[in-house]
UniProtKB/TrEMBL annotation:
Residues 425-880 form the TonB-dependent receptor-like beta-barrel domain. Belongs to the TonB-dependent receptor family. One of its GO terms (biological process) is siderophore transmembrane transport. It is found in: Cell outer membrane. The keyword Membrane applies. Pfam families: CarbopepD_reg_2, Plug, TonB_dep_Rec_b-barrel. InterPro entries: Beta-barrel_TonB (IPR000531), Beta-barrel_TonB_sf (IPR036942), CarboxyPept-like_regulatory (IPR008969), Plug_dom (IPR012910), Plug_dom_sf (IPR037066), TonB-dep_rcpt-like (IPR039426). Keywords: Cell outer membrane, Membrane, Receptor, Signal, TonB box, Transmembrane, Transmembrane beta strand, Transport. PANTHER family: HEMOGLOBIN AND HEMOGLOBIN-HAPTOGLOBIN-BINDING PROTEIN 1-RELATED (PTHR30069:SF29), TONB-DEPENDENT OUTER MEMBRANE RECEPTOR (PTHR30069). This is TonB-dependent receptor. It comes from Aureibaculum algae. GO terms for molecular function: siderophore uptake transmembrane transporter activity.
Length: 919
């Protein structure tokens, strides 16, 4: 009986539609609320509105002017930016509804022309909300998204928005949003933004993040829409973990060979002199190492130190180390996240062969003033987060400096009595959110080092960078960023020999400025497309030597300045072919042009480059193209999910590198100069393939990964024996370019939960170089492959933290590495009355193996909520075993014989107490 009455009621409505009033409206309103406008319409016409007043926001204002317009036209404009629908009855009643539509017809369901059932459906299936027999979920908020439309046939819609902290208003990154019963998942980005595709109707969303109270929401989806979630802290004390990862994200993401670290998760790892260092932690992970304790650079998968693109807020940082490579140049209190791409490098990045270190500075708190600092035996650090406009803009300001000279003066070495070593760095980042579609980020950074170790020379180097990032969201599917970045690296030597007349100053610098447009387009839940264009201008001063003082006999010497332009077009599509197979495919086209004003020497073909084979000099005017290089770079990665917690990934990359370091040291040093590819020096090239297996165990309690790689290099730079790299206008005569190859197997197991957590990383790898030529002076080791300077086949790291109580924990860090290659003298001979040393083939031998154990105790302050500052003590001992690990081995002739000596940095245990505070 009820069904019959309902059918009669609907039919009666349907039959009266044609009889609706044709009354026209003439009305104007300006800056009025919707309710006020509806009341005006009621006064001027016979229409009456039925609605609930709390559906409307009094602060939302509208304006309009109409002359003899249909009511439907006016109402369409009034409700355009709201979730309100309307229905006009035959007796001039206007019934308003939230989100949904009042349907006055039956969908036509039957047989189509070809006989298929359920194909002849007119309009869209209405959204029905189940009641009665459906089990209720207590304590779950209901939200309604979008406005239902009649003629849309879509069954899936996009929900976007942002997740922020209820109190601090800060974004919550890496938060998982899921619909468990429909196997739908999404993750917020660094700014707390999310995008999730949901089916029409009712969806039960779950929001989860470490340290936050889980949130469950019932979302009724009518159309595309926006919703910002707010989440609260989970007051329950959680077990601390070392490296955080979204649940199964390491398994599910399509990019291979990516490592992610958050600075907040490294504070308990015992490091030298108690300084938190996100880059040092990175070297405990497979595939990333250094040539030694005081090496100013990082070797990734058998690559040279200059083959890593180090980015700080999109600007290149050329030397990311302080204090002979012992500390990183990144302030730990302002650094947010670090992503290292060592397998598949996204197409937006170029110019390096081995890896990208994408470092992001934290955003300042825009709601309340905060501070953080530390006091240690060598460094002091202080950082402030300052709201400028509440909930809109903020500053984060950090400064760090060392007072390490006392450490050198406290030694018993007479040679070190007059030594000095100091550094400082400062960073400031401004963030402004104009509205939900526009935001601005600006970063300025400066670092400076000065040191003199038992010499007459004072060395100094500095990094300067500026970056501006304008983010704009065009619509629900398109957004973009315009990035302007400038980087500068300077090195200088102040030589002052009080007993001589050869005093001089030497300086060089490398500068680059880049403009990049990065766009993102998400057409559907299957594809995510990034594309853009970039242009970079290099301006290098390879060196200038000038006399110091009136008595100096040094002549001024200036090396020719260099300029070049590097530009690129790029596009990447991250798409899902099926539930199990996903592909990240990218293409980058790079173009490089070396520019004048310059003179380039032409050497005779089929001859070694030297003074005798120089046949001509070419002169190029200002900004004239001297030589260009470039070509396509393919970036391809694929992931196949065997199960929700197990996947296989493979990748292929080819890359160009147009700028190189010049150094004949076995380890990177601040005095290494940078050289652009020119008429005679070709860009380096590399190809890499990788294959890996990724597994999560016991709900991501354990993570396991095994990845192998093989890399081929072309035009890699090396040098003749005894090469003169400074003050040399014909540097190409000292450089050798050859081939290289690297391969390895990386193993990582991590425990993320429980009182005991940490990871074990092991790498077996080889890094080889071949310098072959038909000319003997350009041939090394008879043209055969030999070990590179940083080849270390075995690399083992164990990092562990045990949580004894909520306040006390113990940490340990153990490292073992094969000794790096070295060239030994193997004999001596006499020629014309003089004795000479005969050396082995290059890098035939190795220095002793390296191993080190560090231990630490971490003490948290009490956890009272209402207190001025929260403290954290770190008591650690670096190199507990007192292992005298050699950095290098060198040979000197004494009393007619050859003697070998080892140099090391920390040959004894180094205890440290560091006090950290946060307010």
């Amino acid at each position: 009986m009820k069904k019959i009455i309902l059918i009669v009621f609907i039919l009666s409505i349907h039959t009266t539609i044609a009889q609706k009033s044709t009354e026209k409206i003439t009305i104007s309103y300006g800056n009025n609320s919707i309710i006020d406008v509806l009341k005006k319409i009621e006064k001027k016409t016979s229409y009456r509105f039925y609605f609930i007043e709390n559906w409307f926001n009094d602060n939302y204002r509208i304006s309009g002017q109409y002359d003899s317009a249909k009511l439907s036209v006016v109402l369409k404009d009034i409700f355009e930016q709201t979730s309100i629908n309307y229905y006009i009855t035959s007796d001039n009643k206007v019934i308003l509804t939230q989100n949904n539509i009042i349907h006055d017809f039956f969908p036509k369901i039957g047989l189509s022309e070809n006989g298929d059932e359920n194909k002849a459906i007119e309009g869209k299936k209405p959204v029905f909300i189940a009641r009665g027999n459906t089990p209720r979920r207590k304590g779950i908020e209901t939200i309604r998204i979008g406005k239902e439309t009649i003629y849309s046939s879509l069954k899936e819609f996009t929900l976007k928005g942002r997740v922020i902290h209820t109190e601090t208003k800060e974004p919550i990154p890496n938060l998982v949003i899921s619909v468990p019963d429909k196997n739908i998942n999404s993750v917020t980005d660094f700014d707390g933004n999310y995008t999730i595709n949901l089916p029409l109707g009712t969806n039960y969303l779950e929001l989860k993040s470490l340290g936050m109270l889980d949130l469950k929401v019932k979302a009724i989806i009518y159309n595309d829409g926006f919703y910002n979630f707010r989440m609260e802290d989970n007051l329950e004390m959680l077990d601390e973990i070392i490296i955080d990862a979204d649940k199964d994200k390491n398994v599910n993401e399509s990019i291979a060979g990516i490592t992610k670290i958050q600075i907040k998760d490294v504070k308990t790892i015992p490091l030298v002199l108690g300084e938190r260092d996100i880059l040092k932690v990175a070297t405990t992970l497979p595939g990333i190492s250094t040539a030694g304790e005081a090496a100013a650079g990082y070797n990734v998968r058998g690559g040279k130190t200059d083959q890593n693109l180090m980015l700080l807020d999109n600007a290149v940082i050329y030397n990311p180390t302080h204090f002979f490579g012992i500390f990183s140049a990144l302030n730990p209190f302002t650094t947010g996240d670090l992503e290292i791409y060592k397998g598949n490098i996204p197409a937006e990045f170029g110019g390096r062969l081995s890896s990208v270190f994408d470092i992001t500075t934290k955003k300042g708190n825009n709601n309340e003033f905060k501070g953080e600092g530390s006091i240690g035996p060598v460094t002091g650090n202080l950082t402030f987060e300052i709201p400028i406009i509440k909930e809109k803009s903020s500053l984060i300001v950090g400064a760090r400096a060392t007072y390490s000279d006392w450490l050198l003066n406290a030694t018993n070495e007479e040679k070190l009595e007059n030594s000095k070593a100091s550094f400082y760095d400062a960073i400031i980042k401004y963030t402004h959110e104009f509205n939900e579609n526009n935001s601005l980020l600006a970063t300025a950074y400066f670092s400076n080092d000065k040191y003199s170790i038992a010499s007459d020379s004072l060395y100094g180097y500095s990094n300067t960078l500026l970056s501006l990032n304008w983010n704009h969201r065009f619509n629900e599917k398109n957004k973009g960023s315009l990035i302007l970045a400038h980087s500068s690296y300077d090195f200088n030597i102040d030589y002052d020999n009080k007993n001589g007349n050869s005093n001089f100053n030497f300086a060089y610098d490398v500068n680059e400025t880049e403009l990049k447009l990065l766009m993102s387009y998400v057409p559907n839940n299957k594809h995510s497309i990034d594309y853009g264009i970039s242009g970079k201008f290099y301006s290098n001063s390879p060196g200038k030597k000038t006399p110091k003082g009136n008595n100096s006999i040094v002549n001024t010497l200036t090396i020719n300045k260099e300029q070049a332009l590097e530009s690129a077009l790029f596009i990447t599509d991250d798409f899902s072919i099926s539930e199990n197979l996903a592909i990240n495919a990218g293409l980058r086209y790079s173009y490089y042009a070396f520019l004048g004003n310059t003179d380039q020497i032409v050497y005779a073909q089929n001859s070694p480059r030297n003074e005798e084979t120089a046949i001509d000099t070419l002169n190029f005017g200002k900004n004239e193209v001297v030589k260009n290089y470039g070509g396509p770079e393919l970036r391809l990665s694929a992931r196949y999910s065997v199960s929700p917690s197990l996947s296989i990934k493979a990748s292929y990359n080819n890359n160009f590198q147009f700028i190189h370091t010049l150094s004949n040291n076995t380890t990177a040093s601040p005095s290494d100069t940078w050289k652009l590819s020119d008429y005679n020096i070709k860009p380096q090239r590399a190809q890499q393939v990788s294959l890996g297996l990724y597994k999560n165990i016991d709900g991501n309690t354990y993570e396991l990964s095994i990845e192998s790689y093989y890399k081929k290099l072309k035009n890699t730079l090396d040098y003749k024996v005894g090469a003169e790299l400074l003050f040399n206008n014909t540097i190409e005569t000292e450089i050798l370019q050859g081939d290289g190859k690297a391969y390895g197997l990386e193993f990582l197991v991590k425990k993320n939960k429980g009182r005991l957590n940490g990871w074990i990383g092991y790498t077996y790898s080889k890094s080889l170089v071949k310098l072959d030529s038909k000319f003997s002076e350009n041939r090394v080791n008879n043209g055969k492959y030999f070990n590179s300077n940083y080849d270390k086949p075995h690399d083992l790291s164990i990092v562990a933290n045990y949580k004894l109580t909520k306040r006390y924990s113990f940490s340990a860090n153990f490292l073992f590495q094969t000794g790096r290659p070295v060239t030994y003298p193997i004999g001596k001979y006499e020629f014309e009355g003089e004795q000479y040393v005969f050396y082995s083939e290059r890098n035939k031998f190795r220095i002793p193996n390296y191993y080190r154990l560090d231990l630490g105790i971490n003490i948290e302050g009490n956890h009272k909520i209402k207190k001025f500052a929260h403290s954290f003590w770190n008591i650690s001992v670096y190199n507990v075993l007192g292992r005298n690990n050699p950095l290098s081995v060198f040979f000197v002739t004494e009393d007619g014989g050859i003697k070998a000596y080892k140099s090391s940095v920390f040959s004894v245990p180094v205890p440290t107490i560091t006090y950290n505070f946060k307010f």
